[in-house]
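Comment thread on ticket #2218

A.B. wrote:
> Attaching the input chain for the structure job we discussed in standup.
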Amino acid sequence: MPRLTTWSLRHPRLVVLLASALVAWCAVAATRLPTAIGVESALGPHHARIQEFHAFIERYGAGHSILLAWGCGRVDACDGVLDEASLRAVARVGRALEPSPGVIRVESPVTTPLLVADPGVGFSRRWLFDTGEPASDRASLAKLALADRGWVGRLVSADGRTGVMVVETASSETASMQAATRAVARAVDDQRARGFEAHAIGQPVVEDALAVGAARDGSLLSAAVALILSLVIQGLTRTWVAVVSVVASVGVGAASCFGWMSLLGMPRDPISAAAPMLVMVIGSATGLHLFCAALAARAVGGTREESLRTAARRQSLPCLLATATTAGALSSYCVGDVAALVRLGSIMTVGVGAAFLACFS
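C.D. wrote:
> Ran it. Output below, let me know if you need it in another format.
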């Protein structure tokens, strides 16, 4: 490490240029990282439970469900979700959702039959919405639906004021669930634009919101950590040179997390979103130790360059051991069965190592 510090002191502009180029590339890579959602992204596609779920989908043709719940809202001609205006809207939304990527089936009060007593046959199947139009006896069929235990609590509420469309996803893969979630979100917006009250519910919707929120919060928390580190370092050293040096160094380590993810094609998930922030916290210890040692050497006498070389020589071994043990503990995640933790261990190992090198540069 003293050799790295000496070389960096001889070529300061080149070091700044290389670090700036690395951070810029990592920043661009961060904007292009895909977002992973769902249990499959966390466990990995080869996990036994995921394989069993795929076998279930292949055999029974059913995946995760997204529920689109709606009510009459501000629609004047709608007194209940089984009214003509509501059924027409549901039929339109269903036709738009069925060919959407990631969707294998859509069930709703429009597509689900009712068993109706038929004097000549016994029972016959009837639909509230038949051949593209509401049934002529829709009102009587609606009363039967509200008395049917197979409908109430599944497709319609007991009072007939809330209805549900069941949208089944094609698989548990991120791309499939995200495509289905986006399609349902567009359907919700369409229903609301027409005056209906609409909401999307279900595991894919929640996990998508969690992933997007975690990515946003991860960026905000990293900025907050940088601010807190700046205040703490300023309070300890009373110099902004230390603040810029340490925060810039750990910032390189945090940015390296995104570069590593991009190189290996890793997606961003709620767990990995915390990696840059943790790298900054861990890496700041190395930067503080090195800078405080340089201040102590400078107080004895000598130039700035000599003080930095002395600090690097004295602190390289303890900082190396601390970084190596931390990286070793983090890399232990890489031998586990949970894909999300494997990614976290790999990302943080690289990030902590990059922050260590940047501090001595």
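A.B. wrote:
> Thanks. Noting for the ticket: Strands lie at 65-71, 103-107, 114-118, 122-126, 129-130, 133-134, 162-169, 197-201.
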